[in-house]
Design a protein that fits this description.
By secondary structure, the protein is of the alpha/beta class. The protein contains 17 helices and 16 strands. The strands form 4 sheets. It has an 8-stranded parallel beta barrel, surrounded by 8 helices. A 3-stranded antiparallel β-sheet has the order 11-12-13, with helices on one face. A hairpin with a 4-residue loop joins strand 15 and strand 16. Bound molecules: zinc ion.
Length: about 525
C-alpha cells in the first residue's frame, strides 16, 4: 500500500475559521511545528490576497525545513487570459515555493454562474494553469472545488476536469467536499466509480458540515486516495475542516497506513495544544486522542481496572499520541484512585497509613467545596504536602487590592504584594482592570527577577462557579484556573466565600505546581 501524503491547511483554510487569526510570526512558528511533526505539505496561504500572506512565503524561504514542502494557494487563470500573464498564476510563481495548490471548478453550475464562462473554457483554464506551473518545476496539487456535488450533477463533466488536470501533469487531483455536505457512503460510491488507473493520484479535502469530515477522508483513503488535506484541531471555515489530529492517528494506529508523521505521534498532543495557544482558543477537552478527557477515567470500578490492566479499558495507551491518562477524583473516589495518583511518589500499599490519610483528607476537602476532577495539579500539591514533598515557591506577607471607579470611566484595580522567597523580602505592584489580573501581575512583578520561569506560565482559562447560590452573597465560589507553559497545561482550584481569595488559591497552586514539578525537579529555572 502506498504511503499517505498529508497536506496541512491550518494556515490557509484554517484561517477562515470564526475567531481565528494568526499573526505572521504565529504562522511561521506553526509552520516550524508542522515541519517538526513531518507534515508533507504546508499550505501557507493565498499570496495574491494580502501583503501578510506574500510576506509569509518570503520569510519561509530562509527557514531550513527538515521535511515539509511549503505550498502556495491560488485559483486557475481567469477565463480567456494567458496563464503566464495571469495575476493568479503569477502570484503562485512569485511565492517561489516548491509546491502550489491550484483550485479549479468541477461543478458545471459553478462554471456557468460563478465563472460565467463555457464548460470548454474552464477545461482549458485548468489545463493551462496546471501545465504552466508544472513547466516551472513545481509540484502541482490540483484541488477540484465542489467535486462531489459536481459529480452528482454531471459525472461526465467532473471526469473531464479530472482528465484535464491529469493531462496537464498535476501530481495530485484533490477531490473537495467544499460545502461539507457529503456522507462517507457518497464519497466511497463516487470515488469507486472513477477510472483511477488512468488518472493522476487522488487526494481528499473535506469540510465538517455534516460532522463526517474525518470519516469522509478515511473513506476516501480506503478506496484509493493517497493524499489527505485537513487542519490541526479541525478548525476552519464554518464547522471546520477534517481534523488532522484525528485522521493521522487513525491512519497510523487503526488502518496500518504509512505517513511520514507516524513516527512522531507522541508529539501530536503538543502540536494540537501549540496551535490552540496560537489561535488563543481553549483546547476542546473532549477531542479524540489529544483532548484532556481522551484518557480520563472516573474513579471507582473503571479506575480499578485501569490500574490492573489499562488495555481492557483504553483503545490505545494515551502516551502513543503524547497524551496522558488522568484519573478523575470525586466523592466516590476509592483508595485505588488515590493510590494511582500517589504512584508518582513511590509504591504505597492500599492498607498503608498514607493512603488512608489522603483518602480522608480528600473527603474533607470535597466537603469544603473543592473539586479535583478538573484540578489534578492542585491534588498533586495535596499529595506532596501530605508526603512532605512540597516546597512553597514563596511565603505571603500580605497583599492589598483597591478597586476604584469614576462615573464615566471603567473600573480599575491597583495592587501591591509583599512576600518572602529564598530568604529575600520581595515586593510587587501592578494596575489592571480586574482584581485577579492585577493580583497575578503583582505576583509576577515581585518574582520576575528571581524566578525567570514565571514568564513561561500563562493563564489560559479562568472559570468561576457559585457553589450554594441559595445563600446569595455569602455563597461559596469555586475558581478553576488552567495554566500553560506552551507545551503542558495544568488545572488548579480554589474555594472561598471571597472570589479574590478563591482565585488567589488557584493562582498560587498553579505557580507552586509548576515550581515543584518542573523547576525544582529539573533543578533549573
Ligand atoms: Zn476547504
Amino acid at each position: 500500500m502506498k504511503p499517505i501524503m498529508i497536506l496541512d491547511t491550518t494556515l490557509r483554510d484554517g484561517m477562515q475559521g470564526t475567531g481565528i487569526n494568526y499573526s505572521l510570526e504565529d504562522k511561521i512558528q506553526i509552520a516550524r511545528q508542522l515541519d517538526g511533526f513531518r507534515i508533507d505539505f504546508i499550505e501557507g496561504g493565498f499570496p495574491l490576497s494580502s501583503r501578510k500572506e506574500a510576506e509569509f512565503f518570503r520569510r519561509m524561504k530562509s527557514e531550513r525545513l527538515e521535511h515539509a514542502r511549503i505550498a502556495s494557494f491560488g485559483s486557475t487563470r481567469r477565463p480567456n487570459h494567458e496563464a503566464e500573464k495571469d495575476p493568479n498564476i503569477r502570484a503562485l510563481l512569485e511565492a517561489e515555493t516548491e509546491a502550489a495548490v491550484v483550485v479549479g471548478k468541477a461543478w458545471t453550475e459553478h462554471v456557468r454562474q460563478v465563472l460565467k464562462t463555457t464548460l470548454e473554457e474552464n477545461l482549458r483554464m485548468v489545463h493551462d494553469s496546471v501545465a504552466t506551473l508544472k513547466r516551472r518545476g513545481l509540484t502541482v496539487i490540483f484541488d477540484l472545488e465542489h467535486f462531489f456535488q459536481g459529480y452528482n450533477d454531471d459525472p461526465a463533466y467532473a471526469l473531464k476536469v479530472l482528465e484535464a488536470g491529469t493531462d496537464a501533469g498535476a501530481d495530485t487531483l484533490v477531490l473537495c467536499d467544499t460545502n461539507g455536505g457529503m456522507l462517507p457512503a457518497d464519497v466511497t460510491r463516487i470515488i469507486q466509480a472513477l477510472p483511477q488507473e488512468r488518472l493522476a493520484p487522488l487526494g481528499i479535502h473535506c469540510h465538517d458540515d455534516t460532522g463526517t469530515a474525518v470519516a469522509n477522508s478515511l473513506a476516501a483513503v480506503e478506496v484509493g486516495a493517497i493524499h489527505v488535506q485537513g487542519t490541526v484541531n479541525g478548525w476552519g471555515e464554518r464547522c471546520g475542516n477534517a481534523n488532522l489530529c484525528v485522521i493521522i492517528p487513525n491512519l497510523c494506529l487503526k488502518m496500518g497506513r504509512e505517513t511520514s508523521c507516524c513516527g512522531n505521534l507522541r508529539h501530536l498532543t503538543s502540536l494540537s495544544r501549540f496551535v490552540a495557544e496560537k489561535a488563543n482558543i481553549i483546547p476542546e477537552k473532549r477531542q479524540p486522542y489529544v483532548g484532556e478527557a481522551a484518557f480520563s477515567h472516573k474513579a471507582g470500578q473503571h479506575a480499578d481496572v485501569i490500574i490492573k490492566a489499562a488495555h481492557l479499558m483504553e483503545h490505545i495507551p494515551g502516551e502513543l499520541v503524547g497524551n496522558e491518562r488522568r484519573l478523575l477524583l470525586s466523592e466516590l473516589a476509592g483508595k485505588s484512585t488515590v493510590m494511582k495518583k500517589m504512584a508518582k511518589y513511590g509504591n504505597f500499599d492500599k492498607s498503608s497509613q498514607a493512603v488512608q490519610e489522603l483518602t480522608d483528607r480528600l473527603k474533607e476537602l470535597e466537603e469544603e467545596g473543592y473539586e479535583y476532577e478538573a484540578a489534578e495539579a492542585s491534588f498533586d500539591l495535596v499529595i506532596r504536602k501530605a508526603l512532605g514533598r512540597y516546597r512553597p515557591l514563596f511565603e505571603l506577607r500580605n497583599y492589598h487590592l483597591e478597586s476604584f471607579k469614576a462615573t464615566d470611566s471603567p473600573a480599575k484595580t491597583v495592587g501591591r504584594i509583599f512576600l518572602q522567597a529564598d530568604a529575600k523580602e520581595l515586593m510587587g505592584a501592578a494596575a489592571g482592570l480586574g482584581p485577579v489580573e492585577t493580583l497575578d501581575d503583582c505576583l509576577r512583578d515581585a518574582l520576575a527577577m528571581s524566578h525567570p520561569f514565571m514568564e513561561r506560565i500563562k493563564l489560559v482559562d479562568f472559570a468561576v462557579r457559585v457553589l450554594n447560590p441559595e445563600r446569595a452573597t455569602a455563597a461559596k465560589v469555586r475558581v478553576f484556573i488552567t495554566s500553560s507553559d506552551g507545551e503542558k497545561s495544568w488545572n488548579t482550584v480554589g474555594v472561598s466565600e471571597n472570589v479574590i481569595e478563591a482565585s488567589w488559591q488557584a493562582l498560587i497552586d498553579s505557580m507552586d505546581y509548576y515550581y515543584n514539578n518542573y523547576v525544582i525537579e529539573n533543578n533549573g529555572s
